[in-house]
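Internal tracking record. Fields below are filled automatically when a chain is submitted to the structure queue. Please do not edit lines marked as system-generated. If the sequence contains nonstandard residues, flag them in the REMARKS field before resubmitting.
Queue: standard
Priority: normal
Entity type: single polypeptide chain
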Amino acid sequence: MSDGGSPVVVVENPEGSGSFVIVCDHASNRIPGEFSSFGVDPALLETHIAWDPGALGVARHLSVRLDAPLVWPDASRLVIDCNRSDDAGSLIVVETERGPVPGNRGLSHEERRRRLEQIHAPYHATIDALLKHRTDAHLPTAVVAIHSFIPVFFGKGRPWQVGVVFGDDRRLADPLIHALEADPALTVGINQPYSPADHVYYTVERHAGPRGLPAAMIEIRNDEIGNEEGQRRWTDRLARILVAVERSLAGASHAAV
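SYSTEM-GENERATED OUTPUT FOLLOWS
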């Protein structure tokens, strides 16, 4: 599913030899051409309902700084949310905080299956293949997902500039949280503004969990990364932390178990 030959799944720096693999589930607000009458005001495609503004910029800068492979789907989450399981009610949204998504109402089973097969499945197959390649090559690997969140959600302000989302494995989350909290200018969300209980941890859990890989999701408030300056500032901050974390994990096995 593409327009103008644009690939649905993008892999940048696939041979990166650093210890991190970066995923950016909501990198793009692209609506493929066949959905040109999706039914959403085009202005809304620039907002958080369609993607995570600023997240891809940070992910790309980190990919360069950390020599890390980066994987992202070039299709808006309004078409299908690659960070949801295939049976999740929020896989294809019909209502957002900004109103309905007419193009998603009354979808046939066939249309749902088509979106899964042409966007969701290739994205996750690409991550699987990349991680298998790294495991086979005995490369130390930890998984980092980069997301952004809106400052106000359904009228309620969110005080955190950044949140770290994690499951039972805290090898990556704990040093991230500790280093971020060392900055007095930051209010750090610990499994905030979301947690795995909100069904937002699917990609990380699916790929890192069974392989025993250290992993975490980093959520940055999108007013912090709305321009290049902010994205580079957060890249500098996160790169310093992740390089230190990489060293601390160096003595532990990152390989699949």
